[in-house]
Design goal:
The structure holds 2 protein chains of 2 kinds. By secondary structure, chain A is of the alpha/beta class. Chain A folds into 2 domains: about 180 residues, Rossmann fold; about 120 residues, TPP-binding domain (Rossmann fold). Chain A contains 9 helices and 18 strands. In chain A, the strands form 4 sheets. Chain A has a 7-stranded parallel β-sheet, with helices on both faces. In chain A, strands 15-14-16-17-18 form a 5-stranded parallel β-sheet. In chain A, helix 3 packs across helix 4 and helix 5 runs parallel beside helix 9. The longest helix of chain A has 18 residues. Chain B is of the alpha/beta class. Chain B folds into 2 domains: about 210 residues, HUPs (Rossmann fold), CATH 3.40.50; about 30 residues, no CATH class. In chain B, the strands form 2 sheets. Chain B has a 9-stranded mixed β-sheet with strand order 9-8-7-10-6-1-4-5-11, with helices on both faces. In chain B, strands 2-3 form a two-stranded antiparallel ribbon. In chain B, helix 2 links the parallel strand 4 and strand 5. The longest helix of chain B is centred in the N-terminal third of the chain and has 17 residues. The chains are: A alpha/beta, B alpha/beta. Chains A and B meet through helix 3, helix 4, strand 7, strand 9 and strand 10 of A and helix 3, helix 4, strand 7, strand 8 and strand 9 of B. Strand 18 of chain A pairs parallel with strand 13 of chain B. The structure holds flavin-adenine dinucleotide and adenosine monophosphate. Adenosine monophosphate (AMP) binds next to helix 1, strand 4, helix 3, strand 6 and helix 4 of chain B. The site of flavin-adenine dinucleotide has 25 residues of chain A, from helix 6, helix 7 and helix 9.
Chain lengths: ~325, ~260
């Protein structure tokens, strides 16, 4: 009978994203039986120790040459083969660009229901899993059940705690026996975007600017605060549309949905589409010179004032505190 | 080249969501319905492909009768005709994909374009599920699409965290559109008039013979917990900034 959870993650150069450990930690807390981690490609072997430490009872490492380059259809077939061997009752994927591409493909092949981008996964009284997923970009939370025999979830990064449980991480050898020349959609090139800025969906602190910042150059002021706080930079949509910052900064219902510990909204009015995308933040801080700005209704802390005075002073105060710490 | 473009009608993003206790769907009275924003990029891209390579753009949309408004709008942007899969039932992604796949199969295609995600359910699944149903390759969250119809070859740039990924694949395929792919056009008045006469073929989902059993079932919808009233600081900016830093350090313990 199907039991346990299969966690499907990607790795680059022997390193997995933190969300892999978040999923393993969560899986161990749910204690459904064996927790298996699956990863792909050159360097997969180097991930074994970390995966085991964070809760993988066993690992499947598809380091065969066929899996050096990502292919959505090829990798989905490989996962299908691993599922035949491991027979898990549930699969977890990260709700990252990679996981959100692969998970529905696997769901289609397995004929199983998928709940995307979950913020909570829990054990139900009937012994199955349930999940909470934000919909309408976070304006609503949906509690969902999956009624197909196998259950698939993708988990939003940056929400679950990471714990170490020191499992064995025993090797399960699986050769899906696939020929890479039959893979149809194949990645041929990856270009890192310049800046090397922290990924917003994984950032612990975000400093975000809106039209109140007034000009692209003024983002330097925010950059200084971000440096002081160890934060990533984000923005409202109009600012990205204007080209003041890269498109990847755009946060909200039609941009990135983020869930940092602290979100600092600077010169952002707090339109419903923007607030939807930040509602998962633990603390929201608003800096705005209009006391009536709707962002203050969404915030935990607010400063009514001119950002060009408040932000540099805040950067200075944060540096002071960090110096003393 | 024949492109099918999948269009979902969703509540306008400015909608404030209302729920009654125990609801498993949102209150829809008074809602303004629009084309899913990501589907506008898919429509625009399919129109550009037609302008470049010739052929036809067919809209496929599944939903209740109100969906026809979104369909007419897509036709006003320039699509040639449409298929409306009619149902009042709330399907899950898999059910919707099965129904849409059947209609696509019957219609025939060189390419299928969808949005990367519907901004109501935020599942981001239907494109991929449709691809599996039809035995097609996929490329999702696409920023840039290059097509060679003679070689039946696609090269696409898709968005990753802090990077771009280039994917090559054969046609036919399913491509899901991300913001940034293009700037969708606005329908002109003459085109709005023309759209009224374009063909919309209505097909009841029940007649398709596909299972619409739910695999993913909503048990409860709730509004997110409200934040406690904000602590608002006013007055001298330097003092307010220092006090904010202190609160973040001592109360929230985040710096
Ligand atoms: C379909 C659709 C989807 C959308 N999706 C998104 C989305 O995903 N994300 C998003 O952000 N928006 C989105 N929008 C746009 C949204 O409706 C708002 O227009 C936008 O969020 C406003 O951006 P803003 O707050 O930067 O600018 P504004 O609304 O212009 O606000 C600027 C703020 O800066 C303040 N300010 C000015 N000067 C100063 C100063 N010196 N010091 C301090 N404060 C100052 C002002 O008081 C004001 O509150 C969408 C809109 C539509 C129609
Ligand atoms: N009911 C529908 N009718 C037509 N297209 C749909 C429907 N549902 C989803 N789609 C398409 O699939 C994409 C992804 O939707 P989803 O998987 O629901 O996030 C949308 O952007 C649409 O292009």
């Amino acid at each position: 009978m199907a039991q346990g959870i299969l966690i499907v993650v990607n790795q680059e150069g022997g390193r997995v994203r933190r969300v892999a450990y978040e999923m393993l930690s969560l899986a161990q807390r749910l204690a459904p039986g064996q927790v298996t981690a699956l990863t792909f490609g050159d360097g997969a072997d180097a991930t074994r120790e970390g995966l085991a430490r964070h809760g993988a009872d066993q690992v499947v490492l598809l380091s065969q040459p066929a899996y050096q380059r990502y292919s959505s259809d090829g990798f989905a077939k490989a996962v299908e083969k691993v599922v035949e061997t491991v027979d898990p009752e549930a699969l977890f994927f990260p709700a990252t660009a990679w996981g959100r591409d692969l998970a529905p493909r696997v769901a289609g092949l397995l004929g199983a229901g998928l709940a995307s981008d979950c913020t909570e996964i829990y054990s139900r009284d009937d012994g199955r899993l349930g999940a909470v997923r934000p919909i309408y970009a976070g304006k609503v939370h949906a509690r969902v059940a999956i009624d197909s025999p196998r259950q698939i979830f993708s988990l939003r990064p940056n929400i679950q705690a990471v714990t170490e449980s020191g499992r064995a991480g025993g090797l399960v050898a699986v050769d899906p026996g696939l020929d890479a020349s039959t893979f149809q959609a194949v990645v041929t090139e990856v270009q890192q975007s310049q800046g090397g800025q922290l990924e917003l969906t994984e950032a612990d602190i975000i400093v975000s600017g809106g039209r109140g910042v007034k000009a692209p150059d003024n983002f330097k002021v925010l950059g200084e605060l971000a440096d002081a706080m160890g934060a990533a930079l984000g923005s409202s949509r109009p600012v990205a549309d204007e080209g003041w910052v890269p498109h990847s900064y755009h946060i909200g219902q039609t941009g990135k949905v983020v869930s940092p510990t602290v979100y600092v909204a600077v010169g952002i009015s707090g339109a419903i589409q923007h607030v939807a995308g930040i509602s998962g933040s633990k603390y929201i801080v608003a800096i705005n010179n209009d006391a009536e700005a709707p962002i203050f209704k969404a915030a935990n802390y607010g400063v009514v004032g001119d950002l060009f005075q408040v932000v540099p002073a805040l950067a200075e105060a944060v540096r002071e505190i960090k110096k003393d710490a | 080249m024949k492109t099918l473009v999948l269009v979902k009608q969703v509540p306008d993003t400015a909608t404030k969501i209302r729920l009654n206790p125990g609801d498993t769907a949102i209150q829809t009275d008074g809602i303004k319905w629009v084309i899913n924003p990501y589907d506008e990029f898919a429509i625009e891209e399919s129109l550009r492909l037609k302008e470049k390579f010739g052929g036809e753009v067919v809209v496929v949309s599944l939903g209740p009768s109100r969906v026809e408004e979104a369909i007419r709008q897509a036709l006003a942007m320039g699509a040639d005709r449409a298929i409306h899969l009619l149902t009042d039932a709330e399907l899950d992604s898999a059910g919707a994909a099965r129904a849409l796949a059947r209609a696509c199969q019957d219609e025939g295609y060189d390419l299928i374009l969808t949005g990367k995600q519907a901004v109501d359910d935020d599942q981001a699944q239907v494109g991929s599920l449709l691809a599996v149903e039809l035995g097609l390759p996929q490329v999702t969250v696409v920023l840039k699409l290059e097509i060679d119809p003679d070689a039946k070859h696609i090269r696409a740039e898709r968005e990753l965290e802090g990077a771009s990924e280039f994917v090559e694949l054969p046609m036919p395929a399913v491509v899901t559109a991300q913001r940034g792919m293009n700037d969708p056009r606005y329908p002109t008045l003459p085109n709005i008039m023309k759209a009224k006469k374009k063909e919309v073929k209505s097909i009841p989902v029940d007649s398709l013979g596909v299972s619409t059993d739910l695999w993913v079932r909503v048990e409860e919808l709730t509004l997110p917990p409200e934040r406690p009233a904000a602590k608002i600081l006013t007055g001298d900016p330097a003092d307010a900034a220092r006090e904010l830093a202190r609160l973040l350090h001592e109360e929230a313990k985040v710096i």
